[in-house]
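so im writing up the methods section and need the Probable transcriptional regulatory protein A2966_02815 record in one place, dumping it here so i stop losing it
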Amino acid sequence: MSGHSKWSNIKRQKESTDKAKSKIFGKLASLITLAVIGGGGVTNPDHNVKLRLALEKAKQDNMPKDNIDRALQKGSGPQKINLTEIRYEGYSHDGVALYMIATTDNSNRTAAEVKNVLERHGAKMASPGAVSYLFEHRGVVCLAKSENKEADVLAMAEKIQASDIEVTDEQYIVYFPFSMLGKLTGEDFKLTFKSSPESTYKPVSTIAISEGRMREKLDQLITALVDLDDVHEVYVNAQG
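--- predicted struct ---
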């Protein structure tokens, strides 16, 4: 087991306002559409694992059915759009590695927006491959301590060949081989998952960031990146 890293898997954390919900729904819609496009136009989640995971995430965030239906149509129907997933790499002001994932219909626009945010916060873009090797593609699932026994969580972790378990005051965060994503369910192990298992990029090693101005600047940078419409994931190798 390892200590919990606040930045091990940066996710969107927005206030529950109409504007915030609209932005989150827009990002989720892009993921749904991209999953359909990547799956060759297949809109049946039983035959498209990425789509099933995207739909589960949308339902967890209470995305309206109409929004989901429109996103599906944009991936396969007459309204089909040209959408691609792009990875960006960079370094923050303090040398922390940044691995950013965006979904876009205009790569030039998105690249310019990401570069602008990085530069405004004293960070910089890196060439492809400069940062990606510092992260491992994994599956991850979170389990609340109040709803699951530690022995059961450890038994599941052993069976799925988990690479690491991070423990916080409230939950267990289990990392497992990406190949298991889409196959793992709580029912299989009589466990209660806080949310569906999902894809993540876990840092191979981390850089310690202490309290103070450096941490505050990193938080501001991550918030600004995730606030971009096209960026849906930001991973860093910082620990604090």
